[in-house]
Amino acid sequence: MAIKCETFSFEVQAQDGTARAGRIETAHGSIETPIFMPVGTQGTVKSLTPEDLRDEIEAQIILGNTYHLYLRPGLDVIKKHGGLHQFMNWNHPILTDSGGYQVFSLKDLRKIKEEGVLFQDHIGGAKHLFTPEKVIEIQETLGSDIMMAFDECPELPCTEDYMQKSMARTTRWAKRCLEARTRPDCALFGIIQGGTSEKLRKLHADELCKLPFDGFAIGGLSVGEAKDKMYETVEFTTPMMPDDKPKYLMGVGKPDDLIECIARGVDMFDCVLPSRNARNGQCFTHSGVVNIRNAEYAEDMAPIDPDCDCYTCKNYTRSYIRHLYKAKEILSARLCTLHNLHYFLTLVGQAREAIIEGRFEQFRLDYYAAKED
Fold first, then answer.
1. Residue 202, Ramachandran bin (φ over 0: left; ψ between -120 and 50: alpha; else beta)
2. 308 among annotated binding-site residues
3. Residue 255's closest CA among 288, 303, 228?
4. Is 336 annotated for ligand binding?
5. d(CA 40, CA 44)
6. 216, 224, 343, 354: which one has the fewest Cβ atoms less than 10 Å from its Cβ?
7. Is the pLDDT of residue 131 over 90?
8. Are 248 and 241 in contact (CB under 8 A)?
């Protein structure tokens, strides 16, 4: 008999059209949805401290990477600290991915078998075998509040025949993940695959959503498909997912994507984009993207975003931040990351408020109007 999570719950508090506002309860606190999760691949959101995440950005949950943390520092080190929360001094919820995407991205360095995936790591080339059971063991050692089932993430495009075989394998692995659970304080989400085919998504959702997962994710998108195809896939997939459980869109996260996919019923998002692009000098604002490295900002005395109240915008000019970037000072990455993640978390917070007040569609229209001004 598969163990159930005793510390996890979800309720929908308001709905406006298809957009939803809800609350997730976990062993390490509450999460108000819709929510964006900053990505802390190596046990850190690059350039920021946990205090920054908590106090400046007000992040409610962050994401850790099973594959990377397994390889370095390794489970023995994290176990010695008592888990990932204590290791990185973050006493709030953590979601960990299964490592599947990273393993399958290795391409020539991995071999898929029914047992699992045999792969060579990107650090020293050592061989490892990730099975559904091993992936759950790793995530339970990390102490994840939300674990992800081990899935195969097929490359797009692929044949319908291969996709169906891959989906069937993912379902078999999902059942093994459920059976492998031992901790009642770690929730487990299943991942729906099927590419951009409505028929295949329905086939996989019908199989997977019968299983006793605590939530469900849409996987296999934002891997090169056209934007309208992604939105279309989200639109026909979210109604296939149980309404009484969180709906998570994996790896998607431009601001427009958040707005459009919240409108289509998504509750949870993650993406490296706001932090990665910040390190390259790209900042997201209410009026569009600001590339702070551009010469036009050399003497610009305005903040990155005049409509933003983040630490960066309250204290520094575009001119100063551009100087830091051109001088290759690490403070540039820190200030831009603080701004971008604050913008993303504020955006989903405003969307939540609009849903609760029954004015989400007007909020959506105002969001696009501000970018056109």
1. alpha
2. yes
3. 288
4. no
5. 4
6. 224
7. yes
8. no
What pLDDT is recorded for position 102?
75
Say if residue 313 carries a ligand binding annotation: yes
Label the pairing between strands 110-112 and 117-120: antiparallel
pLDDT at position 104 over 70: no
- First-to-last CA distance in the chain? 58
- Residue 22 marked as a ligand binder: no
Q: Break the chain into its structural domains and give their ranges.
A: 9-270, 272-372
CATH class for domain 9-270? alpha beta
In this structure, are residues 69 and 81 in contact, taking their beta carbons and an 8 Å threshold? Answer: no
pLDDT above 90 (res 153)? no
> Best-predicted range by mean pLDDT among 58-62, 65-69, 149-153?
58-62
Name residue, tokens 């290759």. 328
Token pair belonging to 315: 């204290």
**Residue 16: what are its φ and ψ, rounded to 5°?**
-130, 100
Summarize the confidence of residues 72-94 as an average pLDDT: 98
Tens of pLDDT along 224-253? 889 999 999 999 999 999 999 999 999 998
220 is in an annotated binding site: yes
* 309 has a pLDDT exceeding 90: yes
331 sits in which H/E element: helix 330-356
Please list the active-site residues. 97, 270
Taking the alpha carbons of 21, 201, 113, 115 in that order, is the dihedral positive or negative? positive
